[in-house]
Specification:
mainly alpha; 88% helix
């Protein structure tokens, strides 16, 4: 069985890892938004189906990444709760 110090250390490490993931996902989301905005701005007025498909893919990516970010935030909050109880 792990000691309380080993558990605390693991919880702190897990929180750090969750924070790294959140920062990475925030950057991914930011880049996807930039790509989507660039495509929308430069391709405005075109009627190419391919462009609409690409924009749709990035819209889905943004939605999925925001959902993933919410999951990481909830997980990090739960980790914080565990840490506070130790």
């Amino acid at each position: 069985m792990a000691t309380i110090e080993e558990v605390r250390s693991a919880v702190v490490r897990a929180a750090d890892m969750a924070n790294e993931c959140i920062q990475f996902m925030q950057e991914v989301t930011k880049r996807a938004e930039e790509i989507q905005n660039l495509l929308s701005t430069t391709m405005q007025g075109t009627s190419q189906n391919d462009v609409d498909q690409v924009k749709g893919q990035f819209a889905k990516l943004l939605s999925d990444s925001n959902e993933l970010l919410q999951g990481f935030d909830a997980g990090r909050s739960d980790i914080d709760d565990v840490a506070n109880r130790l």
